[in-house]
Write a structure and sequence with these properties.
The protein contains 8 helices and 38 strands. It is mainly β. 10% of the residues lie in helices and 53% in strands. It folds into 3 domains: 90 residues, Phage tail protein beta-alpha-beta fold, CATH 3.55.50; 79 residues, Immunoglobulin-like (Sandwich); 242 residues, Maltoporin, Chain A, CATH 2.40.170.20. The strands form 9 sheets. Strands 25, 26, 27, 28, 29, 30, 31, 32, 33, 34, 35, 36, 37 and 38 form a 14-stranded antiparallel β-sheet that branches.
Length: 561
């Protein structure tokens, strides 16, 4: 029938076979070109064949998938991509580009979108950005790491909108028909607004979904200082349940526990001594830290090995443009550099060195204290759903003594390296694989007390894996395990040449399962952790139970074990 034909109305006229072959080298140009078609209830595979003959477009599909499918469409002066969309959506199909070909696939009935919103100038994650799919009624706000997730929603095309006071609104067209989860990051540009003064009044309402957990962002950390420098632990000292020995020290005593009963992680690697000069100053550069998750008790089952509290620090990712920073303080000098590596990578390096020893040497003091530390992170993103980071930390303390003719040093070194691989499979499941190496050592020479010198060393290597899933709107769960190898070395001897020595290897294995449930006024966080020490000789079972109920907006009852 004459009506069952394809009419190509290109702006330049009729397409010759030679021109079609040249034109087919660039699929994007073909999809953007404007044509006209007249189809009247013809088989879909016949329509696709006509497209191939006229434009050079090649399609991949299973014949049985298109069997008995027919299409009807009559348009003029319309982009090829739009025509294909309208033809395929009649049968709940769509296409994805594979090099120089188009693959016909079924439309995903349900899909989702997630990503991170950052400041376009600084690269810092933005919290409390309103993100929503225009016209769908679905949306959310970004968390303290700038992350958002909207799912499940119908698989179709949307405009994704980003709005935040002080920033220009953002908009991007997305297509959720072709994937079960789209990862879409966005950068908002700041916008200066001139408005008249306003007064906003509202009753105070604070709701915490997790028991005894506090999340502290980098801008909050920058507001506190110790010894004239910005300090991570000076901010934590202000949290409920935290006690400091004095204003001169950053040691943390949390809910009655000792300072060595706190678990401190930097991108998953254990830091055994996070202080300089026995607690006077933090060993972390605040400008290199993105956030701190601080648990004062009742922490989840994924954390173990400590009794008092958990501090989980995340290193900030490098910005998308090159920048540097040089800081001078009463105690040290700091240099920070960051920037992109290609299109898929970022790097951040921070190094700090004190000059107290130079001042002490100048005034003739026989005690010359010195410290240095550094943090670095290399990030690589193989795909939109994958992220690999390599993080490192180094801290050193040294006190040079001039008590005898030959100077002696008290030394302390702390080293940690963490390799993290994070992958998102879909809007419900994601996984994290982590490998860490750590080393902490101290040396106390004999001239300090003219007694027994000491050498202490602790080395560890660990492999961890975890899987988290969103079971429903109210229930999340997470499970995983780890294997950790420890070497503990201690040596001491007295003037009578009596030597004391400990050199012990320990293998520690652990597995955990935990869940979070939130509905109406109830929140529950439960889990269990199994730990095996020294090749199965000792088994520890650690149940974790937590529940909270919001009586009012200003009053919440909580209990944890």
């Amino acid at each position: 029938m004459k009506r069952n034909r394809l009419v190509i109305l290109l702006l330049i006229g009729i397409v010759s076979p030679t021109f079609a072959q040249l034109f087919s080298r660039d699929v994007n140009k073909i999809l953007a070109s404007k044509v006209g078609v007249v189809f009247n209830h013809i088989p879909l595979d016949s329509a696709l064949s006509e497209f191939t003959k006229a434009t050079g477009l090649r399609f991949i599909y299973e014949n049985n998938h298109l069997r008995d499918l027919r299409v009807t469409l009559a348009v003029t002066d319309t982009p090829v991509e739009e025509i294909l969309d309208r033809l395929l959506e009649q049968n709940n199909l769509t296409f994805i580009k594979e090099k120089d070909r188009l693959r016909i696939i079924a439309v995903y009935k349900y899909s989702g979108v997630r990503g991170t919103v950052t400041n376009a100038r600084t690269g810092e994650p933005l919290e409390a950005v309103n993100v929503f799919l225009q016209g769908s009624g679905y949306g959310c706000s970004t968390d303290h790491k700038g992350g958002y997730e909207i799912q499940p929603v119908a698989g179709k095309k949307y405009n994704l909108i980003f709005q935040m006071l002080g920033y220009k609104p953002g908009r991007i067209a997305i297509d959720l028909r072709k994937t079960d989860l789209l990862v879409q990051n966005f950068r908002l540009e700041s916008n200066v607004l001139e408005i008249s003064g306003v007064t906003v009044e509202a009753p105070r309402a604070i709701k915490a979904d997790e028991l005894s957990r506090y999340s502290i962002r980098s801008n909050q950390l920058s507001m506190t200082a110790s010894q004239g420098q910005k300090d991570v632990f000076a901010a934590i000292q202000m949290m409920p349940g935290v006690v400091a020995t004095s204003e001169m020290k950053s040691n943390l005593y949390i809910r009655g526990g000792n300072s060595d009963q706190n678990l401190l992680l930097l991108d998953g690697g254990i830091i055994y001594n996070p202080f300089h000069f026995s607690g006077i100053l933090s060993a972390f550069d605040v400008d290199a830290i993105e956030s701190v998750d601080f648990f004062t008790g009742g922490f989840p089952a994924e954390y173990g090995g400590r009794l008092s509290a958990v501090m989980d620090l995340q290193v900030r990712r490098g910005r998308d443009h090159y920048t540097g920073q040089l800081d001078l303080s009463p105690l040290s000098v700091k240099l920070l550099g960051e920037g992109p590596i290609g299109r898929r990578g970022n790097v951040l390096v921070s190094a700090r060195k004190s000059y107290v020893s130079a001042i002490a040497r100048t005034i003739g003091d026989r005690v010359e204290p010195d410290f240095s530390d550094g943090i670095a992170q290399l990030e690589f993103r193989p795909s939109a759903k994958e992220r690999i980071t390599l993080s490192g930390f180094y801290g050193q303390d040294q006190v040079r003594l001039q008590k005898t003719r030959e100077a002696q040093d008290l030394q302390s070194e702390n080293l940690s390296t963490a390799l993290n691989y994070h992958r998102v499979f879909n809007h419900k499941v994601e996984t994290l694989i982590r490998g860490t190496l750590g080393r902490f050592s101290t040396t106390f020479p004999a001239p300090l007390t003219e007694a027994a010198p000491q050498t202490n060393k602790l080395e560890d290597a660990a492999l961890q894996a975890s899987v988290s899933s969103t079971a429903s709107e109210h229930l999340n769960w997470k499970g995983g395990g780890q294997v950790r190898f420890l070497n503990i070395f201690y040596r001491s001897y007295d003037p009578i040449v009596t030597e004391y020595k400990i050199d012990q290897n320990i293998l520690e294995s652990a597995a955990f399962v935990q869940s979070e449930y939130h509905k109406n006024r109830w929140s529950m966080q439960n889990g269990i952790r199994f730990c095996i020490y020294d090749s199965g000789k000792d088994l520890s079972v650690e149940p974790r139970l937590g529940v909270q109920y919001a009586l009012y907006n200003f009053l919440t009852l909580r209990a944890a074990y």
